TrEMBL record:
A GO CC term attached to the entry: cytoplasm
GO biological process, one term: DNA replication termination
Entry protein name: Putative DNA replication terminus site-binding protein
Keywords recorded for this protein, A-Z: Cytoplasm, DNA replication, DNA-binding
Lineage: Bacteria, Pseudomonadati, Pseudomonadota, Gammaproteobacteria, Enterobacterales
Keyword DNA-binding: yes
UniProt GO molecular function: DNA binding
Superkingdom, natural source: Bacteria
Coiled-coil ranges per UniProt: none
Organism: Klebsiella michiganensis
Pfam families in the cross-refs: Ter
């Protein structure tokens, strides 16, 4: 088994598979973080070392991507927005989740689905400003002087 560096069209196709298409969520009330998820597994009967090496490299690149995203600390509140400006409709977890390899014999598998809980972390000052705007009915572009309500 050999592999080579993929061409640009292949990379674009891979990227498209890792994002949510607007067409699928346009008329629905779903989060854009919902993506296609298929249960499954692959049994590799030959070339185990090569497959493990390739999956190891994929996981290293996924970890490198996840670390790069986590390194955006100066703009932590808008990390997601920055990332989605560069890669629209990207589902970060789908790109950064490692591929799992099981070397023992598998006797049974189970698959479950869950509704993901999305946590958004916001700075205290941002929450206070939002609450002040709500109280006084100020428009979204309002700038608080932070001296009182």
């Amino acid at each position: 088994m050999t592999h080579s560096v993929p061409d640009v069209d292949t990379l674009v196709d891979i990227y498209r598979q890792q994002r949510v298409d607007k067409v699928h969520v346009r008329d629905e009330h779903y989060s854009t973080k919902i993506t296609r998820k298929y249960p499954g597994f692959v049994v590799v009967r030959n070339n185990h070392d090569q497959v493990m090496s390739l999956v190891g490299e994929i996981n290293r690149l996924r970890d490198k991507f996840a670390d790069a995203v986590k390194a955006i600390t100066h703009y932590q509140d808008s990390r997601s927005e920055i990332l989605h400006q560069v890669y629209p409709w990207l589902v970060t977890l789908q790109v950064s989740r490692n591929i799992r390899i099981v070397t023992e014999q598998i006797r049974s598998l189970g698959f479950t689905w869950q509704i993901p809980v999305i946590h958004k972390f916001t700075r205290l000052e941002t929450v206070i400003d939002r609450l002040r705007r709500e109280i006084i009915g100020a428009p979204a572009g309002y700038q608080s002087d932070k001296t009182g309500c």
